[in-house]
Amino acid sequence: MLAITVFLFILFCYRATAVVDDRYYPRYHLAPPYGWMNDPNGFSEFKNEYHLFYQFNPNSSLVPGIAHWGHAKSKDFFRWEHLPIAMYPDQWYDKGGVFSGSALVENDKLYLYYTGNVNKPGQYPDHQQHQVLAISTNGVDVTKEKINPIINGSNYQPDFRDPKVWKYRNTYYMVIGNSFQDEETNSTLGRALLYTSKDKIQWDFASILDESDGSLGYMWECPDFFELNGRFVLLFSPQGIPPSGYKYRNLYQTGYIVGDFDYKTNMFTPKTEFIELDYGHDLYATQTILDKSKRRIVIAWMDMWDQNYAEAEDGFTGQMTIPRELSLDKYNRLIQRPVKEIASIRGRTRFIGKGRAGAEINLRDKSGEIHIKSSANKDLEIWIQSTNESSNVLISYNYKRGIVTLDRGGKDGVRRAKWRPTDKLHLKAYIDASSIELFFGNGEVTFSSRFFPVGPIKVRIGESNDVESISVIDLQRSIDATYKIESED
Question: Model-level pTM?
């Protein structure tokens, strides 16, 4: 009897924990402890710690499944502590998924607004979505309010999701992604809706912030709206934009429109066209916060829908980008720079000095930070290589055409952007076990992509390229794949 009891206890412990393979697990990017991760949710600064919730399937790394809210916290954006699952799909209004949402910090409470999804198989439409409120007083335990849902959205079904909430003076604001049927063209178009509230619970429709004219897809997901340098930025992820030249090459896009906003009329007046935020293969579903230092910081899911990446067979799928501080330049262009806290994980400098053509520098533990300065009037090629040539990445600059390229090989492996430095070419590259993020110039052009190197990684300068200076710095492992977190089993 004792032997059977011990066996059952061991079996239970085995089922209740999960350890993923380390080969592609990020060393300093946030990834799920196991299972599936997508959109960042509830990004916030609460009781002197940064909290990030995310769409999470604890039962599989192969499919999104029925969304839960995973949860992690950090003091510095790089040393993350995984916390228990924050919310389960356990109410009538979210049994089809605890979909994406945001956080509002007030009165020592964390107010979590999210979309409750209800699937309706065999019906048309086959789903319904409502806005829901949950509250945490300690940053770990979350309670869904009894009055839910707080917004039914009966006039805006079925795609009515991803609330982002903020406060201005004595009023609360919520922007929601939506799709609608345009009567003139008889087509489905995307838009962003604005709601207001005086008490965080009763919400009234205020305006349509902006909507597609037919060129910006059929659904606007994960909208965000904020002021930066006296202007307003509508940041969102539209679905259904066809490729055009170097632009819109991913299945779905993420980008922004800059304009003016009047808090008296709740009207947004765009001043720019839609601009892609990132030109890599894998960036979607952004969310921003304004932290206590008044920095506007953005983070995104560094993955893309309908991919079949090798990490899934290792027990996890998905990771987040490096958090980036945003600013807006005089051309109404968002500038992105890694948060300054990344300095806290810098380790040994592998190399610093002039970069000779063909020179090779090894990275430690498949991760590192690379700084390059080169002539703006010369081509540049930088290779990120492993023992498997098919997983190599080529970074290049063509000065005559004014084009920067990231090529990770394989089908549809090339991404390009027009960019020409005004003086010297400056590039920062951040390599992790299965990702690369590029920041050109001051951060006016970025690429975020996944790649899956086999064995050790080295940096190689192109055979016909000398560079004025290159530094390669270790980034110390701050996260590993040995977390053991209780699962639903």
Answer: 0.94
Burial (CB < 10 A; 0-12, 13-18, 19+), residue 146, is: exposed
Instruction: Spell out, as residue ranges, where the chain has pLDDT lower than 70.
Output: 1-18, 483-489
What per-residue confidence (pLDDT) applies to 6?
A: 37
What's the pLDDT at 422? 87
Omega within 30 of 0 (cis) for the link into 223:
no
* Cα separation values, 168 from 171, 174, 198, 215, 260, Å: 6, 11, 11, 32, 16
Quote the tokens at residue 319.
């990771």
Amino acid present at 296: R
Per-residue model confidence as pLDDT tens digits over 451-460: 999 999 999 9
- Catalytic residue ranges: 39
How far separated are the first and last CA of the chain, in Å rounded? Answer: 24
CB-CB contact of 120 with 127 (8 Å): yes
Residue carrying the six token digits 């838009």: 191
- Give 180's strand partners: 189
pLDDT at 233: 98
- Model confidence over 435-452: pLDDT tens digits? 999 999 999 999 999 999
pLDDT computed for residue 389 by the predictor: 85
Sheet holding 296-301: strands in order across?
284-290, 296-301, 324-328, 334-338
In terms of phi and psi (left: phi > 0; alpha: psi -120 to 50; beta: otherwise), the region of 92 is alpha
How many whole angstroms separate alpha carbon 156 and alpha carbon 390? 46
- Please enumerate in sequence order all residues whose Cβ is within 8 A of that of 167, keeping only pairs 6 or more positions apart, or say none: 104, 106, 173
Residue 389: which residues within 8 A CB-CB, separation 6 or more? 409
